[in-house]
Amino acid sequence: MIEIKNLVKKYSNKTVLNKINFTVSEGEILGFLGPNGAGKSTTMNIITGYIAPTNGTVVIDDVDIMKNPKKAKLKIGYLPEIPPLYIDMTVKSYLDFMYNLKKIKFSRQNHIEEVCKSVEIQDVYNKIIKKLSKGYKQRVGIAQALLGYPPVIILDEPTVGLDPNQIISVRKLIKSLGKKHTVIISSHILSEIQAVSDRVVVISKGKIVADNTVEGIEKMSSRDSNIVLQIDGDQEEVENVLKTVEGIKKIKDIFFKEKNVYEYIIEFDTNIDVRRNIFKILSEKDFTILKFDIVKPSLEDVFIKLTSANYVENNNNDDSLNYIKDSENNNGSGKNDSNI
């Protein structure tokens, strides 16, 4: 449905996007994730035809947006980070205006009513937009993006400034859009992407640093898991014993907890089940294990690592960042081929 190839954007001598490549399949909800200033909004603006790339191509449903921008834009509904609302209009007059602007051919009243129902704004239909809550304003912004039923919906930071209840409501709405549209949602908030996306593309400093399912990124994080042990026993003796256990790479930290009890943070080889080795050797030495946890980094930790300067520079071509190829059998989204 969407294909981005070798996308480059430069402003004078500054490269904002550096050979961006990714695709989005029909019916997929793609989370486009990155810290502020990573190049997310620039990418969104190029995909929607707001600005031109320095190099590269964007193809929307087989239409190159640079070669045939009018036809390509008809296939896109776009909600920028700041919704393009005329706040002195009522919701009805605003959607009427956008209907005319987009030259939509569907029956006006039925179409606008269907869109309002899908985003649940029927109860504010006759209200002035400036009097609406932030959450309702976002919904009105999404409604204008849905007018004409474009196959592609692009949402840039759609929950910025919303309260928790509004965020949950908008997330449910975005999730429902994936049943009828291909969706790209851009955000710098990992939990936002995790809640609604089938797949995640992470951008940092103008480069793609990960392209994977949420589950795939979680698997990537398992490599950095640590074992946390609390052991009753002489620190030096316990430390020497642990160093002999097969699968333990190193003891990263040791913390005093109470008399003769220390906590050990251990890096281990994830290809070896070290639990049995640890229990066996420590029990043979008559040390008491008071706590044993395998602690995986949170997705936030993984995001911080992926977007760190050193990681971007040193691991941009790492094969581990590639999208899980098995999912290509389902159009890259884990969904079937039904017409949606």
UniProtKB/TrEMBL annotation:
Pfam families, per the entry: ABC_tran
Domain named ABC transporter: residues: 2-230
GO MF term set: ATP binding; ATP hydrolysis activity
UniProt keyword list: ATP-binding, Nucleotide-binding, Transport
InterPro entries given in the database record: AAA+_ATPase, ABC_transporter-like_ATP-bd, P-loop_NTPase
Family the UniProt entry places it in: Belongs to the ABC transporter superfamily.
Annotated protein name in UniProt: ABC transporter ATP-binding protein
Organism field: Candidatus Paraimprobicoccus trichonymphae
